[in-house]
Design brief:
The chain is an alpha+beta fold and 208 residues long. 37% of the residues lie in helices and 13% in strands. The protein has one domain (23-188): NADH Oxidase (3-Layer(aba) Sandwich). It is built from 5 helices and 4 strands. α1 (10-21) packs across α5 and α2 packs across α5 (133-150).
């Protein structure tokens, strides 16, 4: 069946443009982000759907440069130590994770190896006993990153943020034992413009 030409309303086009312009950015300027903008971005995250409308997310926000750097260094230390202790049975998995980590590791900014100099870091948690939380948090995170782009900001999901739970400074976040960190997101004004990676287009199966 031949596809029909779609005439998008301007509002739809604006949303689609934001989706297509979003990139994972790992280099940021020193320009701070206004707190009210961060709050609006989090509000957009809150609008995500969630299983049984549990809205399991909580947001722990860092905006102080020195604090972000201290968390970044501690997380990097713990992450590398974890790789070193993975053991021979996990050598393949560890190697793949390490290669990915080294790809994301910004050796030009060793003072902030995990969060890449971003002025805002948001740790998102959910209750430990919520089996649907990873899916819910994923949708929440995407909402936030798209909202950030709409505000002229860049972002990046940082899975290594989960390692914060194993650092000696984790208690500074005041996360209760009933919660666990699902992901971290960094926000700021990007200092790079990554190219769009090729997307697969052979993965749609229409069932009549």
């Amino acid at each position: 069946m031949k596809s029909e030409t779609i005439n998008r309303p301007s509002s739809a086009q604006a949303i689609i443009d934001v989706i297509y312009r979003r990139r994972a950015v790992r280099s940021y300027t020193d320009q701070p982000v206004a707190r009210n903008i961060v709050e609006e971005i989090i509000d957009a995250g809150r609008m995500a759907p969630s299983a049984i409308n549990k809205q399991p997310w909580k947001f722990y926000v860092l905006m102080d440069k020195a604090t972000i750097k201290s968390f970044s260094k501690e997380i990097a230390h713990v992450a590398l130590k974890d790789f070193a202790q993975s053991g021979i049975k996990k050598i393949t998995q560890t190697t793949n994770h390490l290669l990915h980590f080294m790809h994301d590791f910004n050796f030009g900014a060793l003072s902030d190896p995990i969060f890449h100099g971003a002025p805002v870091v948001i740790f998102i948690t959910a209750p430990r006993d919520n089996e649907w939380a990873p899916l819910d948090i994923g949708m929440c995170s995407q909402n936030m990153m798209l909202a950030a782009k709409a505000f002229g900001l860049d972002s990046c999901p940082v899975g290594f943020g989960k390692f914060v739970q194993h650092t000696k400074i984790f208690s500074r976040l005041n996360v209760p034992p009933s919660e666990e960190v699902q992901i971290s997101i960094i926000l700021g004004y990007g200092d790079e413009k990554p190219e769009l990676h090729t997307r697969k287009n052979d993965n749609i199966i229409f069932i009549d």
